Amino acid sequence: LPIAAVAVISLILFVNAFMTSVILPFIAFMVSDFGVAENPDEVSRWSGWLMSSYMFGQMLASYFWGSLSDRIGRRPVILFGLSACSITCLLFGFSTSFWMAIGLRFLNGAVNGIVSVTKTYLSEITDDTNVGQGFSLLGLNRALGMIVGPAVGGLLCLPAEKYPAFFPKGSFFDRWPYALPTTICFFISVAGTVAAYYVLEETHSVGPLSRTSTQNTDGQANLNIHDDDDDDATALPAPSTPQRLEAGLAAPPTGLMALLSDSSVLLTIACYALVGMNYVQYDELIALWSRLQPDEGGPGFTTSEIGMLYSVGGIGLFLYQIFCFAPVERRLGVLTAFRMGVAATIPALLLLPYCGLLRPTGGVLQWTAISLCILLRMVMGLQAMTCTFIMLANATTPATRGAANGLGQMTAAMGRMIGPIVVGSQLSWGLE
Q1: Is the Cβ–Cβ distance between 156 and 180 less than 8 Å?
Q2: How far apart are the C-alpha atoms of 331 and 17, rounded to whole Å?
Q3: Does 87 or 225 have the greater pLDDT score?
Q4: How many Cβ atoms are within 10 Å of 335's Cβ, its own excluded?
Q5: CB 43 within 8 A of CB 291
Q6: Which ranges of 40-167 would DSSP assign to H, the alpha helix?
Q7: For residue 418, which of 3, 58, 403, 426 sits 20 to 30 Å off, Cα-Cα?
Q8: How many Å separate Cα 150 from the centre of its chain?
Q9: Tens digits of per-residue pLDDT, 238-258?
Q10: Which residues are listed as membrane-spanning (predicted)?
Q11: Can you give the residue ranges of every domain in the chain?
Q12: CB 211 within 8 A of CB 78
């Protein structure tokens, strides 16, 4: 693997995971402060809409960014995505109303073409000998983001309440209690943008082809095709009209139609969308359920405790991605590893609500049980998701890989948009 490029891609993926997860510990508290919910039981529903707005933006724009990277290259799309995301993430912390927050999260998702294009970039700098190792970076850096992001969000939101010696009453971050975590996110994103600008090289050939017609000695047209950067031209006989018609009728579909007509691509994208929807549902459920008081069936955690809870799962995920994922993928094969990941998450999904019953027996037992559920879900869920990235790369060609990853990200974003709305509404309904 090219070490410099891999290091920068790792930083970019970390930035993206950090940006996504930094709001998880405080999103329900932020919605409650906005006063948009008529009663506390409604907070979960409104939080679901706020979470979904990011995915709605991604759903609308992901295919565009992936397809654009096939036309203008991977590097400019990555640089623009990092720059735009850093600004929208910063502004989110200064939201003065629920609707301002939902608009900024929508924009943050709409300008974020990072994940789909970096997946394409990774597929173009890896080969069959190191593809598992390369794509494990996606999970590894998501794990790092899930360690640092929630910890920063949980520990540094509402700083005037937690650290009055450093942030006294009436200070800047007292007036903007959720801006400190997003400000840190902004500076990390800027660092990623600068590193990408100086280190990443373009991996996708986008030089336009020029065409000129000449005439051969027999009077038949030739078609000269050459790269704009190349002085040499190749003269090819231009096909006759019947030949062109026949070729046109026999030509396979291209672009989006080529992807939609490929069953392997469609099945892989469907798996990615379903796993992604389930993953974000669980992330939001932890954030909303953890703040519920024991009489409501939850553990009654604070923002700091919720942030640390995510970080514990992220540490386990980080270690698994370093030491286990690539050997498991090589030994079992990508399809079996995917099935294993999906099946192993079921117990974590079923057992989490019952952890709320452990409160009377002591905090340590409850913390351990919740951490194990989150750890199993994160590790196996991300194993399944990483396998879908590899399967999609295997099912596409370099010419369509950017569009395919964009389509996959768009479809996954659709699932992730629906998931939080469903979970938030169901939890509010259950509490009512």
Answers
A1: yes
A2: 28
A3: 87
A4: 11
A5: no
A6: 43-72, 74-92, 98-110, 114-125, 131-156, 159-162
A7: 403
A8: 15
A9: 444 344 334 444 445 556 676
A10: 7-31, 46-65, 77-102, 178-200, 300-320, 332-352, 364-392
A11: 3-204+257-431, 209-256
A12: no
Closest to 181 in 3D by CA, of 140, 213, 149: 149
CA distance 418 to 428: 16
Residues in the chain: 432
Three-state DSSP class for residue 158: coil
Q: Which residue stretches of 93-130 are H helix?
A: 98-110, 114-125
The helix (run of H) or strand (run of E) holding residue 111 is none
Q: Give the pairing type, strands 234-237 and 209-215.
A: unpaired
Count CA within 13 A, CB hemisphere, residue 229. Answer: 4
- Say which residues have a Cβ less than 8 Å from residue 285's Cβ, sequence separation at least 6: 352, 423, 427
The H or E element spanning position 212 is strand 209-215
Residue 40 gets which letter from DSSP?
Answer: G
Residues 6 or more apart whose CB falls under 8 angstroms from that of 131 comprise 123, 390, 393
Please state, for a pLDDT cut of 90, what percent of the chain lies above it: 24
d(CA 105, CA 159): 22
Q: How many C-beta atoms lie closer than 10 Å to residue 300's C-beta? A: 14
Instruction: Provide the token pair at 402.
Output: 């950017």
Give Cα 385 to chain centroid, integer Å.
Answer: 11
**What is the C-alpha to C-alpha distance for residues 318 and 281, in angstroms, rounded to an integer?**
21
Residues 343, 191: contact at Cβ < 8 Å? Answer: no
> pLDDT tens across 94-117, in order?
999 999 999 999 999 999 878 778
